[in-house]
Amino acid sequence: MSHGRVRPMGWRRLLLLPIALLASLAVVVLARTLAQTPDLDARWRLDGTGHLQLIATDLPWMRAALGHSLEVIVAPGIAPLYVDGRRVVNSTRWVASDEDRDAAARQQRQMAHMLAAGVPVLLGFTDRMSARVTPHARGYATLGITFWLLCGLGLALELVGAVVILVRQDVRNLLYAIMAQCQAAQLLLAAVDAVPGIGNVSLLGGHEAALRMSLDVITCAALLNATLLYPTPLPPRRALAWLSWTAAAVFTGAVMMFELPQAWWWSEALSLSTGLLVIGLLGWSYRITPHPYATVMRRLSIVTTGSLALVTIVVALNDRMPGEVQSLVTAVPVIWTVFFASLLLMSPFLARSQHMMREFAMLAGVSTLATSVDLLFVAVFSFNQFASITTSLFVALGVYAASRQWLLDQMIGARAVTTERLFEHLLRIARKVEEQPERAADWQLELFHAVFQPLVARHEPGFTQTTRWYEGGAGLLVPLAVEPQVNVDSPSQFHGDDQPEPRLIVLRFAERGKRLFTAEDARLADRIVEQLRRAVAHDRALEQGRSEERGRIAQDLHDDIGARLLTLMYKAPNTEMEDYVRHTLQDLKTLTRGLAATTHFLSHASAEWKADIAQRLAPTGCTLAWSFTQDTEIQLNVVQWSGLTRILRELVSNIIAHAHATHATIHADLSCGMLKLSVTDNGVGGTPKDWSTGLGLGGIRKRVRMLGGTIAWQQNTPEGVRCDVSVPLAVPSTPAASSPPTSPGAVAG
Amino acid sequence: MAVKVLILEDNPAAREFLGRVVRESFSDTITIVEAGDLESARREVRIAGGAQGYHGVDPFKLVLVDLELPDGSGLELLEELRQYPATKIVTTLYSDDEHLFPALQAGADGYLLKEDRFELLVEELQKIVRGEPPLSPAIARRLLGHFRTNTRTGMNRRITDEGNGESLRANGGSSTFTSALAFAAPSPVVIEPALDLPALTPREVEVLTFLSKGFTIKEIAALMSIKWFTVNDHIKSIYRKLNVSSRAEAAVLASKQGLV
Q1: How far is it, in rounded angstroms, from Cα A223 to Cα A175?
Q2: What is the CATH number of domain A37-138?
Q3: Residues of B in contact with A603 (CB under 8 A)
Q4: Is B3-130 in CATH node 3.90.550.10?
Q5: How far is the C-alpha of A616 from the C-alpha of A627, rounded, in Å?
Q6: CATH fold for domain A598-728
Q7: What is the pTM of this model?
Q8: Spatial separation of the C-alpha atoms in residues A160 and A181, rounded to whole Å
Q9: Is the pLDDT of residue B190 over 70?
Q10: Nearest to A568 by CA among A646, A560, A656
Q11: pLDDT the model gives residue B194
Q12: CB–CB contacts below 8 A, A to B
């Protein structure tokens, strides 16, 4: 529940230290108190008839009584106590009926009165056996592992509650702190409950049950109140919050002061109705705002409330259970308490929690269910204990193993994308980023959209080194793997407004709001970013190597062959030869330039063609009318660029050399991926069919065919020749940023 | 007195050819000094009065420089002759903007393509000397980009300065040309001489944009309804600003290197 930025914790850390010390001190004091309580050096078991059977002892004179049941305890000066095995419990919290609870509490008090350290008592067993023993302080060793584990969990919960409220002081965190404190206290009491032996520990006298019920009811009120506020503030929050706190206050007051009749039933009713209410409220909250926290918490609430209902039924049916399983009955609520406490412990870290945390909660939940179901079998079908335990154990383990993944997915939410799909996406996007580096940001957004399917995915300026998540997993901040390249040559730069460049991808509400982002998601995102970076870097290095190689070849050609051709040109014996060499030199330059640059924008190329042709025609006294239109900007690859350049140059050369024209008209038009060129002159063309093939026409034809286009000459009226060229130039698809494109996109080339 | 011309060109045939172009272009008596590499060109410049050209009795009026030379690039000589009061022309085979643009930045007044016809070269040379330098679409595009990025980096610099103004202010050595500005504006002191980079006027941008689309000067004059020579003036001014801006950039770089 704590979310947002954790501010520097100067004074908070200082404050946390005494709180932690105090809590630890409380546990130590508790353990010390318990260690000093008197105990008999014996171990007991409830037998089928509700008697305590002696199963082990270190005292030699008591060995004879092994296997016999304890009937009475006699202490000097006090009326003998006839022991009812079913009532020998440390805690009366989970006793359904008022009479039983009172009886148990009474027996507890009497026993505490009787067993005092150092005063010998007489134990009367069945079959007239008896033994005299002196109770002594039990010491730390006999407190049992369960005691320490529960204390540890309680301590952890207590500290988490303290940290949450220290990190940020608001209502929500206060409510969480209340819940945490109540359940921490509950765990400590459960720890006391778990201390073995009949030397009953009743630290709180008769109020123990009342206190524990009150703690649970207060937790319920806080839980309800928190649900009303988070993740979405719900309209009836005021009224319902008042109602819940009033109910909690009334219950606490009644159970503490006036011995509320049927108190246990009341507390269970309040808890269960709170659970149901929370489930309903979270469903409503999700409909208002699809915050994944609501869904996840709702699933957990369903599990918790369901298991609590089972526990309630089991405890209520306690009387119908055979004596052997009664100790098990007392264990069920403890397991449930642990389950609930662990959920509470992990809820602030829902997104951060590791597998272990979840597994633990899962295990606690499943064992609650398994034990409850087992006990129900025993109660309802009158199985014998061993058979039922074995059956239910196998069933529970089977169910757990089979449905563990499904259950986990249900609790936390599954990732939608399989590994293969993920790889597919990654490869596809890497290629796209390479093809259209200026749209890299959009492609990456699409990738993360496909992987996590969030409700919101957008770019934002900002910076983060690694992936971070915020609002407890509601959102994820992913760094851009590849920053979009601003193409310096791009024609759009002159009307481009300077927007802040995106550096971050913000994702909110994974899986269309059904799931929280987890630490694994953040790691996955980081891995994706890393892989994408690597893929693109590799591609770029490859491309760079290629273009360096091309550049080197171009440089060599240009320098060596170019210089020689130039000399040859200067030394040409006649103008015809000179022109021929000049032509060759120009072709060489086009070739090398095409090699050096990989792509040319069509608009740039056309500007150069125009300037070049105008310059060449000017000295011959031929005027030029040039028009160029295009429906979309495209990039020409090397082949297209050099092909078109040379076709045009050849056509213009023909006009200059042979047509003796005074005017030339050139139209170029790109529409729907088809470039249509028409070159018209008013010279002495004659019939194109009669032309000899030595005019470079063959070269032009060849180039047009190479580009997959067509060319046709026709006699123009009243004079001259008209040449029509059409060449298909693929247009790169421009998919919208929001909708994922279906095809990889055909890029020229 | 004869007009002195320096031709720096390693290819003897080309040298001879260019000599003919120069003689054909002007009616004055011409003295052509030829150099085959950078070293001999430098020597000739020294003999004629040094790279500054102020103390020379008889400086060169026209310098033709080839870019690819046996002992280096012609760009080096152009850099050295920045202040030299001659018309400097690049003669090259490389007609692409990647090669020509740095030459123009280094102070060349124009460029000739060696493979052009004799008559065309004569005409082009005369034009350059008259102050009608050529400007191909590719170079016009580069110029647009150049001046645009200049203004942008200038702005960026100022923004970063506000962040770490302290450290820069400490090195106040280079703030001579912005001190007036600092008085005018109460905002953080601008140390970088970014503002000194000349910006193009809207008209110049317009001319450049047309040129980059392949329009001829005549067509541009018609499109903008201005005189032919006005368009030409704009082009000359752009040339000048390019030279100035590259010098200012060099100064910035130098001062930065001094600071670091």
Answers
A1: 7
A2: 2.30.42
A3: 213
A4: no
A5: 17
A6: Heat Shock Protein 90 (3.30.565)
A7: 0.55
A8: 9
A9: no
A10: A560
A11: 45
A12: 71
